[in-house]
């Protein structure tokens, strides 16, 4: 990347952090996409004309549609920023491709499979062995509250307060949300806290810091294997999906689910309506006023 492009990208990312509240992960993704685009153009990203941008899109033909969509979105926002700041008079991003792709349905587990994982985790935790007690607490928070893996592993030691049935979490973009904590999860965490060193700032310490996302992934897969479920079918995110899908099946409102999951856009939450379409059809047939109206 040329120094000029680097300076423009840095200014853009500063704006994204300060005004849009973008997370570190989002900023890193934007930087990576913009750096790759600059390299593909041989520099001059900031001043590229529509023809050059069109050629750039042509170089992306072999990439996955989701990757193309993400890179296009990064460039559109970048050029929009340049125009807003008066650094360009035109926006060449209309030449970027707009791939159409179907968002894949999330992998889920049924309630019986989740129950089997809990049975195994609970049986092992009875021994009082530290890792087993910790694993049950992790499982209760993943499935019982729908936490993201990053939210769970970075949870402060004092995040859960006795008698307080919820957490206040800082989500994406610096936004806060309330997360309910079941009495089961509260009890599991209380048992685990007895094993956590007093000097630890984290609820789930690991190494010199907190438990890593990779280690959490390994723990969840091992719990699945112990319950006789193929490990490749599960991850922390699959348990979050199960939380959402099973809540929807139980009659939860989509807007409530959006709030619990911390989704900024209801469209993200609506994917669960496809997963649970059978229940929704039954709901219309049984609750709609015309359902009981005779001819």
Commentary on this structure:
This protein has 295 residues and is mainly alpha-helical. The protein folds into two domains: 3-95, DNA polymerase, domain 1 (Orthogonal Bundle); 111-235, Intergrase catalytic core (hpI Integrase, Chain A, Orthogonal Bundle). The chain contains 14 helices and four strands. Strands 1-2 form a two-stranded antiparallel sheet. Strands 3-4 form a two-stranded antiparallel sheet. Helix 2 (24-41) packs across helix 4 and helix 6 (130-145) crosses helix 10 (236-249). The protein is elongated, with a radius of gyration of 23 Å. It starts with a helix and ends in an 8-residue tail after the last helix. The mean pLDDT is 81.
What is the fold's blueprint, element by element?
Layout: H1 3-18, H2 24-41, H3 50-58, H4 65-84, H5 111-125, H6 130-145, H7 149-153, E1 166-170, E2 176-180, H8 183-193, E3 205-206, E4 209-210, H9 213-226, H10 236-249, H11 254-261, H12 266-269, H13 271-275, H14 277-287
Antiparallel strand pairs: 1-2, 3-4
Helix pairs in contact: 1-2, 2-4, 5-6, 6-8, 6-10
Give me some keywords for this one.
295 residues; mainly alpha; DNA polymerase, domain 1; hpI Integrase, Chain A; 2 domains; two-stranded antiparallel ribbon; two-stranded antiparallel sheet; 4 strands; elongated
Task: Please give a quick description of this structure.
Helix content is 56%, strand content 5%.
Largest sheet: 2 strands, antiparallel
What is the total domain count? 2
Strand content: under 5%
CATH class of the largest domain: Mainly Alpha
Q: Per CATH, what is the topology of the largest domain? A: hpI Integrase, Chain A
The average pLDDT value, as a whole number, equals 81
Name the helicity range. Answer: 55-70%
Backbone structural class? mainly alpha
What is the global morphology? elongated
> Would you count the extended β strands for me?
4
Strand order, largest beta sheet: 1-2
């Amino acid at each position: 990347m040329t120094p000029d492009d680097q300076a423009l990208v840095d200014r853009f990312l500063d704006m994204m952090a300060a005004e849009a509240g973008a997370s570190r992960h989002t900023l890193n993704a934007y930087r990576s996409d913009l750096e790759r685009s600059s390299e593909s153009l041989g520099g001059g990203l900031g001043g590229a004309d529509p023809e050059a941008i069109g050629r750039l899109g042509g170089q992306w033909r072999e990439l996955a549609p989701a990757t193309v969509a993400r890179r296009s979105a990064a460039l559109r926002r970048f050029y929009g920023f340049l125009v807003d700041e008066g650094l360009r008079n035109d926006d060449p991003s209309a030449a970027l491709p707009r791939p159409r792709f179907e968002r894949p349905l999330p992998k889920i587990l049924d309630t019986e499979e989740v129950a089997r994982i809990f049975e195994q985790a609970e049986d092992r935790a009875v021994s009082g062995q530290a890792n087993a007690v910790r694993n049950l607490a992790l499982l209760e928070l993943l499935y019982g509250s729908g936490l993201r893996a990053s939210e769970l592993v970075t949870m402060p030691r004092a995040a859960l307060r006795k008698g307080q049935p919820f957490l206040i979490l800082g989500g994406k973009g610096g936004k806060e949300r309330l997360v309910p904590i079941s009495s089961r999860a509260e009890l599991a965490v209380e048992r685990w806290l007895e094993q956590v060193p007093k000097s630890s700032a984290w609820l789930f310490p690991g190494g010199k810091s907190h438990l890593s996302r990779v280690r959490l992934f390994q723990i969840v897969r091992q719990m699945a294997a112990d319950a006789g479920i193929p490990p490749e079918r599960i991850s922390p995110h699959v348990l979050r999906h199960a939380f959402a899908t099973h809540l929807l099946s139980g009659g939860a409102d989509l807007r409530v689910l959006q709030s619990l999951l911390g989704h900024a856009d209801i469209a993200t939450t609506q994917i669960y309506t496809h997963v649970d379409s059978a229940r929704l059809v039954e709901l219309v047939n049984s609750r709609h006023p015309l359902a009981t109206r005779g001819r």
